[in-house]
Predict the structure of Adenosine 5'-phosphosulfate reductase.
Amino acid sequence: MTVLIDTLKQAPSEGVQRAAELSARYETMTAQEILRDAIRNEFFGDITLSSSFGADSAVLLHMISEIDPGLLVLFLDTDRHFFQTLQYRDELAKRLGLTNLVNLKADAEEAAAEDGKNTLWRTQPDQCCDLRKVRPLNREMEKWGAWISGRKRHQSATRAKLPIVEFDGRHYKVNPLATWNADDIAAYFLAHDLPPHPLVEQGFPSIGCFTCTKPVEQGADARSGRWAGMEKVECGIHNPIYGGDGI
Ligand code: SF4
């Protein structure tokens, strides 16, 4: 709790500087070393993991299970997930012994008021993601100072310069797999006998809601099947939300 209060008191520029220093220190460390330091030292008692239980998610979840299986794992349950994702979530959590998985949902009144016809994903996808992902996560993150994400630089042009630690004006975000590529992920799955998401073999290298995810051609940008045909490329949960001082 002391760490949280300290984080809240921190001026944005101090947060940006701390994130830059941590990024530089973490750049030469393995993903496991980064996670161990972030969970047990830098952000002790004040960090959570957000997982989509998508194509690559088992890697971070497995690492977490070896460091702290009781760490809070957040899943944004949009009510639009493939049933395979929900099954995979439950099977993986059980297999890895994760004891603190929480499903975050949209506020029921907000959902009824803004998307009574269930068409928002098509007409206003940014608002739909805001309703079902951004706001539920932000509400939960009011209690936390830092979170772990599985984003990687190789995934898309918009993530090519992803730092290992970011600061959004309020939260630190740790990206231990930022430098990993598809081969690193595949090797980790193999080395630890991790089950693949069942949709990967059907051509889904990145998996979101069923309404907004399509399979991709071999060799194409891994995230090109997300909101295919729209200008939208991110759901918004990674946008800085507490002012423009984020990195
Ligand atoms: S990915 Fe699509 S269905 Fe899911 S929350 Fe975003 S717009 Fe809505």
